[in-house]
Amino acid sequence: MNSPAKIPSDVKAPVVPGILIRVAALVCVLVTATALLGQDKNPFAGDAGAAKLGEFQFRINCAFCHGLGARGGGRGPDLTRARKRDGNSDAEMFTTINQGVPGTAMPPNGTTGQGVGMTEEEVWQVITYIRSVQVKAPPQPAGDAVHGKQLFYGDANCSGCHMVEGKGGRLGPDLTAVGMARATDAIVDSVRNPSRRLAPGLLEATKEFPQEYETVTVVTAKGTEIKGVTMNEDNFSLQMMDASEQIHLFDKVALRSIKKSRTSMMPIYGPALLSDHDLQDIVAYLQSVGGK
Amino acid sequence: MRRTIQGWLVLLAASSIALSTWGQVTSARLLNSAKEPQNWLTYSGDYAGHRFSALDQINKENVRSLVAKWVYQTGATGKFETTPLVVDGILYGTGTDNRAFALDARSGRPIWLYQRQLPTDIRPCCGRVNRGVAILENKVFMGTLDAHVIALDAKTGSVVWDVAAVDYKMGYSFTLAPLVVKNLVVLGVSGGEYGVRGFIDAYNAETGERKWRFYTVPGPGEPGHETWEGDSWKVGGAPAWITGTYDAAKNELLWPTGNPAPSNRGEGRAGDNLYSNSLLALDADTGKLKWSFQFTRHDEHDWDSTQIPVMIDQGEKHLIAQANRNGYFYVLDRTTGKLILANPFGKVTWSNSKDAEGRPVAVKESTPTLEGRRVCPGAAGVTNWESPTFDSQTGLFYVNAREQCDMFSTAPQPYEAGHAYYGSAYFPADDTEPFWGALRAIDLASGRLKWEFRYPSPSWSGVLSTAGGLVFTGDSEGNFVALDAASGKALWHFQTGGAAYAAPMAFAIDGKQYVAIAAGSSLYAFGLP
Q1: pLDDT tens-digit profile of B268-278?
Q2: Total domains present in chain A
Q3: A176 lies in a domain?
């Protein structure tokens, strides 16, 4: 485990004269401030050797989710982007790596079972590595975000199933953060080939892998067929949402049949349905939202 | 199933022993644990590693009415891996960060609680976990994350002795439940991710004095040393982090070992790398090596062989069976250490041929590269450390299996004392199918699959079989499940609310049978209404 800057905690008030307490308190404040300052800046910034060591640490501890080149894997965001949802300053990245991101699959350093956890020095090496592969300027979205928004909520009807900043449908994943998290080509690919890699859904506290947006079709005991996405399941129960956003809860034994499919419920948006130009605009819109 | 007269006698015996022998677990009782099925005296329930309970009050006929009797909440986060012991009504378990506890096993109410003050810079690879205690006389024994061995007073939880086995700052820790044999506390070290030199230790249970140490990586002049290139043996890994078994007739400990270091990079450690990924037969009194068998030579995929080696006697045949992380189910003759059978029990792509002795041989294309290569099984293996069970009634060996392939990629890395030393990275292959798991029943005689029970995702839970014709296991979706041992049909389940990273066990008090498992951050005990 990593231990962040330690703050002196052995000031014993009752037996120390007041002036000493104040001096001690001042020392305490100074030490704390210095320690935190020390944590703000990457001691290895720009050091190619440290970046190389960081690459190895990255492969061991981070590549499982973020991919070999930090371009984003099945689960983790693309880290080569200069904008990062949880902050791109040295201090913010250090905090993100050490403490994880609550409510997401990003765990605190050393708690994953993937890798053994990194020392403070190694975390800085990883940050140095990420800086070395980071695309220098934030990519200027080629598309027109305003038009993209019109398409998202209008003709392309993305909002029928996807929510952005609280507005839209619920059947597909919320896309508020996707523009910050994913590389442009990954977003384009998921629109053109929605079934190639299903989006991750619910991840439970001690589970290794998240539930994915699999399609499920059940036939109830009464013979009613219901199709929707899997919200969660275990060996004995199924929780699903149908196309009208109705949640259904089933005991598997009570169903006549269950058919699961890895063909996404999302239609394939081929170039005939959505031109490259319009898709660029939608990507530009997604990249324009979701910042902190 | 109708209750046999034998079954009733066992339960009667249970209540009478409870009155007469409280607190005195002698080494003779450990040796004859089969005579007191109401108690669970060692990690695997017996020295043979069967994880089988002779209790049959809960059986195929009535298991559908099983109910939760109590829940003990540790209040701790992280993987809860303990197999509790039960001795005459008292349950002894451990939790994360080297917690230990004694409970009234009828109610789950704590009698004492212990938590070690650990240094901030311990180096556990894979969670701040512990799998349980061992017991002898009036002491329970625990290996700690800062690589100490401690003895606690069984009645109060007070520390009786505390010895440092090795410097934890070099990457060593203990996570396994120790095994008590005679008056010795035996345990193997963790740290295969830090370039340690693995060992198995035995301590005097009374004093904590170390009786012997066996280094799993031979030093200069010792046989096997020549299987390491240059100085690579010094950081060769081969930890021994799962509890072994004990062959009393031969006075041999059978102890499995883990990966060579660095785990996914063979460059720099040319050779077989003995005794990594091996089964060792050690003289229990001296720690001297009697024989060894290596499952994965020159491992480059992190396939520790730290799975329970299960001793099985069939007439004149004295066997040892192990479902190995590399995907093969092995049966050996434990008199000679010779291989009898090696059959895959999950998807395997790393080998397509066998040598003259019948051992699977690795294909060249399985060696990791910088860009990464897809190999099955993945680094987590077809199975991992989760305990299997053997039921002599069905002749079946039950183990939780995983279907997952990984991309294996090297990440060259200099050794630095106390730092992670993988030399590698692995991550899920870009498959269209998600990973899944199954409880598999393997026929011991043929090594072939008899039945399987699938899970939506792989399980890290161990398995228990009972004389009631049942197998019990947990899954990653939080279910604790009872299945028909013969057919694999699920007969009962309970949603615990947390993934199981532990193996179930069974005990009885006052003539009532319980089945217990740790899941999430709580310990659950079930019984008939």
Answers
A1: 999 999 999 99
A2: 3
A3: yes
